[in-house]
Write a structure and sequence with these properties.
With about 625 residues, the protein is α+β, with helices and mostly antiparallel strands. The chain is built from 14 helices and twelve strands. The radius of gyration is 47 Å and the shape is flat.
Length: about 625
């Protein structure tokens, strides 16, 4: 017999018994539901109406008493509203008469309430003429009528509550009967079902147990496992298929092992041939592989280390924080190249290495590890240092002759300016403007060189961003109005003060605003704002101008980079580079968010001022 037929035969009776129990339970639940519904449908509305009438009587009594005591001269309108509420509740109760005695009780309620209304109206109609007589009338006429009406309402409520209690008792009896009868039927079905299950399980458990033990041995690497031959049903075919699968897995395991060993040898050969230092990490940032270049870089033996943590090997917190950020957030979390340079002291002087990390993802997109690469850039660093020193020296040497040339052109213009022809005067003016532009370029180069070499002297004090931003914006008001551009400053008062050099930060803001003015057309808008985020303040300079193409986003802060489309004459291309160095000198960061046609937002961060010993306020 096939397993399917065995299961149908074994569980058919159990399903039939389950159906009997289910039908019996449904019948009992329907009976119980009817009993419960009767309780709610027949009496609950009348109880709510009686309760509402009692509350209304209480509010009317207060209105009459306050009027009699002269505390409320406008009680009559409120009394009339409460009267309408009472009669509405009384009508609801009359519409829901479900008990034979309920009609007489409602008549009594109506009679006593009308008597109470008559006595209460006499007191209320007295108006403001309160005094001992009004209070006496209230106590003699109104109060007894109120008690009689209240007693009638309470009698209505008690009548329905007693009827609800009787119905609830009946529902409890129905529920008890349903519980015991369902329990009895269920026990009979359970005993019969257990009997069928025990008999059926004996026929299935033994071959399944053999397959389970064989599977456990297979997972432990025993590919020679065999399963005793079963019967002619599906379990027998499964046993034969299992043995065939075990043989195939054994053959595949041997072939795969040879392939893995070959690939590992190829990987080792590639790693050894790469001159850059390479460290392979697992998901816990423990080292699984190091090539000889990295081993020599950090003074350890090449080969397979005993899985040390990255911090134990590199011993640099900044490198570890970067690798962790890359592993958790992906390549988009990377820093600029200037911030990813590791300096190591070696024989013959310092060596500089540019490090980069890339996460290794598994098939389910989870981070399985990270590859960390160290590239020797000592020669590039030295070339960059020599270039900066040359630019600084050349700029310094050019500054003096440019100043003299500017003075000479000024004296020439003063002496012979009125005697020159128009074309000669134009040439002289062009020469003067070119000298001024060259002098500005030289000054910018000197400033940038000092910033890059760390020779700039920052006067860090407590600074109000609201004040600096306001003064900076006011410097460009006239220029913005002349070009029809709306320039505003929106720095909230609650933004904390920052620790910064006010002159340098004002220079950064001035440069960002002047850049925005060059790229915004008439009718556009430029906004300077700030917000606090933890221990940092984010300063934004936003415009709705032409925007910056995406290919410029990563290079816009480099030297001599200018985006096409600016209005008027261009600058030197050093303003944003100097701004970046100034912000970095304050331990902050600067970046741009922009898209073509939607404007740009330049953002830089500054640390919040915290008072320490020796700080300037």
């Amino acid at each position: 017999m096939k397993i399917r037929r065995k299961m149908l035969a074994g569980y058919g009776v159990a399903f039939a018994l389950l159906g009997v129990v289910l039908l019996w339970a449904i019948a009992n639940l329907v009976s119980l539901g009817r009993a419960t519904d009767a309780i709610l449908r027949e009496n609950y509305r009348s109880i709510l109406a009686a309760e509402q009438m009692l509350q209304t009587l209480g509010r009317q009594d207060k209105l009459v008493r306050d009027s009699a005591m002269g505390l409320d001269n406008e009680a009559l309108p409120a009394f009339r509203k409460e009267e309408a509420v009472f009669f509405e509740a009384l009508a609801n109760a009359k519409d829901n008469i479900t008990i034979r005695e309920e009609g007489g009780v409602l008549d009594t309620v109506e009679t006593e309430y009308l008597a109470f209304l008559g006595a209460a109206n006499d007191v209320l109609m007295a108006g403001t003429a309160s005094g001992p007589n009004s209070l006496v009338d209230y106590q003699r006429e109104v109060l007894p009528g109120l008690e009689r009406a209240s007693d009638a309402c309470r009698a209505l409520k008690a009548l329905n509550e007693d009827h609800m209690f009787s119905a609830s008792t009946n529902a409890g009896w129905v529920a008890s009967r349903a519980i015991w009868s369902t329990l009895a039927v269920g026990l009979v079905a359970m005993v019969l079902g257990i009997g069928f299950s025990l008999g059926f399980s004996r026929r299935l458990v033994h071959p399944i147990g053999e397959l389970t033990r064989a599977t456990r041995r297979l997972t432990e690497g025993d590919y020679e496992v065999r399963v005793p031959a079963g019967g002619a049903d599906e379990l027998g075919a499964l046993a034969q298929g299992f043995e065939a699968m075990a043989r195939k897995l054994g053959e595949y395991h041997k072939m795969n092992l040879r392939r893995l060993l070959s690939e590992q040898r190829q990987t080792d050969a590639v790693l050894k041939s790469i001159s850059d230092g390479i460290i392979v990490l697992d998901a816990e940032f423990r080292i699984t592989r190091v090539n000889p270049a990295a081993a020599n870089l950090f003074r350890c033996e090449a080969g397979e280390p005993a899985n040390p943590h990255l911090l134990e090997f590199v011993r640099d917190q900044k490198v570890f924080d970067y690798v962790k950020r890359q592993a958790e957030s992906g390549p988009s979390a990377g820093m600029n190249e200037e911030d990813r340079v590791l300096a190591l002291e070696r024989e013959g002087g310092a060596r500089y290495y540019l490090y980069d990390a890339r996460p290794v993802q598994s098939e389910d997109k989870a981070t399985a590890g990270t590859v960390l690469v160290f590239r020797d850039i000592t020669r590039l660093q030295e070339l960059d240092r020599m270039k900066s020193e040359f630019v600084m020296a050349a700029s310094h040497e050019l500054r003096t002759p440019m100043t003299g040339l500017e003075m000479s052109l000024g004296l020439l213009e003063e002496r012979v300016g009125g005697t020159l022809a128009a074309d000669q005067a134009a040439l002289l003016e062009t020469a003067r403007q070119d000298v001024a532009r060259l002098k500005a370029l030289i000054n910018d180069l000197l400033d940038l060189s000092r910033l890059e070499s760390g020779k700039i002297d920052l006067q860090l004090v407590r600074v109000s961003l609201r004040s600096i931003a306001g003064k900076t914006v006011s410097l460009f008001d006239a220029q913005a109005r002349e070009r029809g551009i709306h320039l505003n400053c929106d720095v909230p008062e609650e933004v904390a003060d920052v620790k910064a050099d006010p002159n340098k930060i004002a220079w950064v803001l001035s440069n960002l605003v002047s850049n925005a003015l060059r790229y915004v057309d008439a009718g556009g808008q430029i906004s300077v704002s700030a917000e606090q985020a933890g221990d940092w303040v984010h300063v934004h300079v936003a415009d709705d101008g032409k925007g910056i193409p995406e290919e410029y986003h990563a290079r816009v802060f480099d030297k001599f980079i200018q985006v096409d489309g600016a209005a008027g004459t261009g600058g030197t291309g050093l303003g944003l580079a100097i701004s970046r160095e100034i912000v970095r000198a304050h331990r902050g960061a600067i970046w741009v968010d922009s898209s073509v046609g939607r404007g740009s937002t330049f953002t830089f961060t500054l640390p919040v001022f915290t008072m320490k010993t020796g700080d300037k306020v």
